Amino acid sequence: MYRANNPTALITVGLLNACSGGLLIYMALVDLHAAEFMGPKLQGSVKMQIKCFIAALPGCGVMSIIAKWA
Question: What DSSP element (H or E) covers 37?
Fold first, then answer.
């Protein structure tokens, strides 16, 4: 029988949520952003790469706020 307040259940749910979040971060950073950052337009300009990394930070922050809220 599942009890939501059981410490074992809480640890299990926390670990599964952490794994899911980690996989989503990996997919976003490695598979999606890597394709964009390895393109010829960004490879030719370090200044443009820095701007793109800085622009990605607010997006990560907003997604963290949404995750905390949801």
Answer: helix 34-37
